[in-house]
Specification:
The structure is a homodimer. By secondary structure, the first copy, chain A, is mainly alpha-helical. Chain A has one domain: Winged helix-like DNA-binding domain superfamily/Winged helix DNA-binding domain (Arc Repressor Mutant, subunit A). Chain A has a two-stranded antiparallel ribbon. In chain A, a hairpin with a 5-residue loop joins strand 1 and strand 2. In chain A, helix 1 packs across helix 3, helix 1 runs antiparallel to helix 5 and helix 2 packs across helix 3. The longest helix of chain A has 17 residues. Chains A and B meet through helix 1 and helix 7 of A and helix 1 and helix 7 of B. Chain A binds a DNA duplex through helix 3.
Chain lengths: 147, 147
DNA sequence: AAAATAAAAGAGTTTTTAGTCTTTTATTAA
DNA sequence: TTAATAAAAGACTAAAAACTCTTTTATTTT
C-alpha cells in the first residue's frame, strides 16, 4: 500500500546515480557508505543495487584505497530511462494498467488509450532527461536527495 | 519486477467493479465464482477484495440463494479514483517519484515538477471516469476484462 | 424447520521485495 | 610484501503482497 511509480530498489538506484554524478563530476570517486548516508538508503542493500548497475555499465567502480563508485562521461549522458529499465524492466512503459496480458492496440482494455498517454509521457520524461541533468540543481541546493 | 501502475489487488478491484457493473445493470446479482472466472482472478483472493469494497460501500452484496454482488445507482456514478484510493491509498496521486518523504513544492526532489504533471494526469483520468463509463464498450465487446 | 446457497470472516501458506550480515577478492599505499 | 581499504559476492532474515483453505453467518427456498 506504499505504491510509488517505481520500486524502492529503483528509487534508490535513481537517487544514487544522481548522487554519484554530483559527487564525481571532477574525476573523483565516492564510497558506498557516503552514498548510502547521502541518499538515506540501507548501505548493503544499495551495494547490491550498485553492483548490478556496475555490471550493466551504468556506473563504474574501483576497489581498494581511493576506490569507490563514479560515472564516466558516457554514463553521464545516459537517459534516466536506462536506469529505470535496468532495475524495474520495461513493463512500466509497456504494461497494461489493469494487468491484462492480452491488452494491445487491437484488443484494448477499457482504459488502454488513457493509460497509453500517461505511460508515454513518463517514457518521454525519462528518455529526455540524462543522469547529468540534475547535478546543477543539486549543486545549487535547490533539490535534495535525502529524506 | 512486474511493476504496474497499481497493485495486483487494485487491478483485480478495478476489473471486478467493471465486470459487476456490466453484469448487474438490470438489477440482478453476480456471484464471486462468476466474477473471478470472468476477470481471471483467484476466487478467494478476490472475495477478500470485494468484502473490503463492500464495507466501504463501493459495491453491494447479498447473502444466500440468488445473492451475490451488485452495484447500486450511486455506485455506478462513482469515479474510478475512489476504487483506487480504497485499495492502494492516495500515495499514487501524492507521493514523490523518488520516494522522498520531505519532497514538496517548497522542497522539491529533482523530478518533482515532472512527476507532478504525470500524477495529475492520472488523477484527472481516474476522477473523470466513472465505474459505469465502461459498461458500454464491454457490451459491444470492444474491450475485455480477461487475460 | 431444514437444506441449500452464497458472502463474511479467520487463519493460514507462498512468493516477492526489502534489508542484513559475513566472507572474499581486488587494489593501493606504506 | 604486508596492512589497509573498499567493492563483490554469498547466504541469510524480515516484511509485505499475493494467494489458499476452512469455518461461520446470513438468507432464501422447499
Amino acid at each position: 500500500m506504499v505504491m510509488g511509480i517505481f520500486s524502492k530498489t529503483c528509487e534508490y538506484a535513481i537517487r544514487s546515480v544522481f548522487f554519484i554524478a554530483h559527487r564525481t563530476a571532477s574525476g573523483n570517486r565516492v564510497g558506498i557508505k557516503e552514498i548510502a548516508s547521502g541518499i538515506d538508503s540501507p548501505e548493503h542493500f544499495l551495494a547490491k543495487i550498485l553492483q548490478d548497475l556496475s555490471r550493466r555499465g551504468i556506473v563504474q567502480s574501483a576497489k581498494g584505497p581511493n576506490g569507490g563508485f563514479y560515472i564516466d562521461e558516457r554514463g553521464l549522458k545516459r537517459p534516466l530511462s536506462e536506469v529505470v529499465e535496468a532495475v524495474d524492466g520495461n513493463s512500466i512503459f509497456t504494461g497494461c494498467g489493469l494487468g491484462l496480458a492480452y491488452c494491445s492496440e487491437t484488443n484494448p482494455c477499457p482504459l488502454h488509450n488513457e493509460f497509453k498517454a500517461i505511460r508515454n509521457q513518463l517514457k518521454d520524461l525519462l528518455e529526455q532527461t540524462t543522469i547529468a541533468d540534475f547535478s546543477e540543481s543539486l549543486n545549487l541546493g535547490i533539490t535534495k536527495l535525502r529524506k
